[in-house]
Protein: Aspartyl/glutamyl-tRNA(Asn/Gln) amidotransferase subunit C
Organism: Salinarimonas soli
Amino acid sequence: MSVDQTTVRRIARLARIAVTDEDVPHLQGELNAILAFVEQLGEVDVEGVEPMTSVTPMAMKKRQDGVTDGGYPDKIVRNAPATEDDFFLVPKVVE
């Protein structure tokens, strides 16, 4: 895949980047080089390679997913201007 000058200008407009006409050919070359590198990565054989989150093996620290506080909704909504069944009531802002 290659990028033409029209596409470079469109990308710049979408990214809200001011690009002069003199910069377009240089950016076109850079974007084409990036895309060529990405295409090279697609040729790498990764069959049997496990996904990893780090280059060094490590176990993720996990904690028990449990409620450690709560059980008193009446105290939580006590200062709210409007509540119903222990829920906050807010004014409708979207029709």
Q: What stands out?
A: The mean pLDDT is 90. The first strand starts at residue 83 and ends at 84.
